[in-house]
Amino acid sequence: MIGFFFVVIIIAFLNSLSNARNTIAQTPPMGWMSWELFRCNIDCSDKTKCISEWMYKDQADVLHAEGYKEAGYLGVHMDDCWEANTRDPNTNELYANTTRFPSGLAELGKYIHNKGLKFGLYTDEGAYTCGGYQGSQHNEELDAQTFAKWGVDYIKVDGCTSNLTYLKEGYKKMGQALELSGRDIEYSCSYPAYMTTTEDKKPFYEFIMDGCNEWRNWWDIECKWDSLSSIIDYFGNASHILAPFAGPGHWHDPDMLIIGGNCITNIEEETQMAIWSIMAAPLIMGNDLRKVTTDSKEILLNKAAIAVNQDPLGQMGVRIVNKDNNYDTQIWYRNLFNGDIAVAFY
């Protein structure tokens, strides 16, 4: 019992420190991200399908006009491959590919903000991004100032081309730089996903103190059921380890919603929405909003599921294993702010 209460006191202390350092992302972030379907497509023979300002404006238009914004999906998150191949020779700042982003990112950010939405961006704690573009290694302070200048509200920081030694240093440096940037920028850290240790060996207290508002724990999701179900099992197995470190301002991220990507069935889509909501996971869609079916849209806009996900208590749900350890039938639950308990049967 002494050990249990000691852990509770330490977690409460860490929560108080993290709240003092960073009070944004009090509920899991919600929005849309480009990577799942658009990847690093820089062929703009069709401007609606490539990584370009035209495609992002299209997605922002749908997010604004078709009920997603009202449901809480506010972020338009750019992923990799927006960058130019070099930094600015005069300022050393990052800048966008001028062919695919002729207006520049500050103007794109204004367009998104004028829709009442948030502007999300991507960088890497390596010298280069996963797609081979300029990363933020050794330029954290300059890049954080640049992101703030552009009006960025959320930054995903990857770790493809670095090593664990620098990632440990770099994510801390980026967190400090973002906090000193003069702008509230939600900080998504991919660092834990690059660690080879199991979840019980990861220093989540360090991620919290580095200012991370969410972090990727495991592999990227792919637009197929096998990938989705393996992520559910992985997080279920670790849920009792992970739950104490999730809460307002810092969330575990099992990756994007593939609902509406036309790659799994509606029942499977309902399953992801339910489990992500129980887990207090970020609800960031990885679809093409222009092509989402009516059935998939109804799942994404389900008010009850979103209410559970966005519950202000912020407690991550855990999986209960039945007495026969039969993982084919699972029960997940989480406590809610008003004293209710949300339950998912899977």
Describe the model.
With 346 residues, this protein is of the alpha/beta class. It has twelve helices and eleven strands. Strands 7-6-5-4-3-2-1-8 form an eight-stranded parallel sheet. Helix 3 runs parallel beside helix 5 and helix 10 (266-278) packs parallel to helix 11. The radius of gyration is 19 Å and the shape is globular. The protein starts with a helix and ends with a strand.
In short:
This protein is an alpha/beta fold and 346 residues long. It contains 12 helices and 11 strands.
For the record, give the distance between the C-alpha atoms at the N and C termini, rounded to a whole number: 32 Å
Beta-strand residue percentage: 5-15%
Gyration radius from CA atoms, angstroms: 19 Å
Average pLDDT score = 93
Report the principal-axis shape. Answer: globular
Q: Which terms summarize this structure?
A:
single chain; about 350 residues; alpha/beta; eight-stranded parallel β-sheet; three-stranded antiparallel β-sheet; 11 strands; about 35% helix
Could you outline the blueprint of secondary structure elements for this entry?
Layout: H1 2-21, E1 30-33, H2 35-38, H3 53-65, H4 68-71, E2 75-77, H5 105-114, E3 118-124, H6 140-150, E4 154-158, H7 164-179, E5 186-189, H8 204-209, E6 214-216, H9 225-242, E7 251-253, H10 266-278, E8 283-285, H11 294-300, H12 303-309, E9 318-320, E10 331-335, E11 341-345
Parallel strand pairs: 1-2, 1-8, 2-3, 3-4, 4-5, 5-6, 6-7
Antiparallel strand pairs: 9-10, 10-11
Helix pairs in contact: 3-5, 6-7, 10-11, 10-12
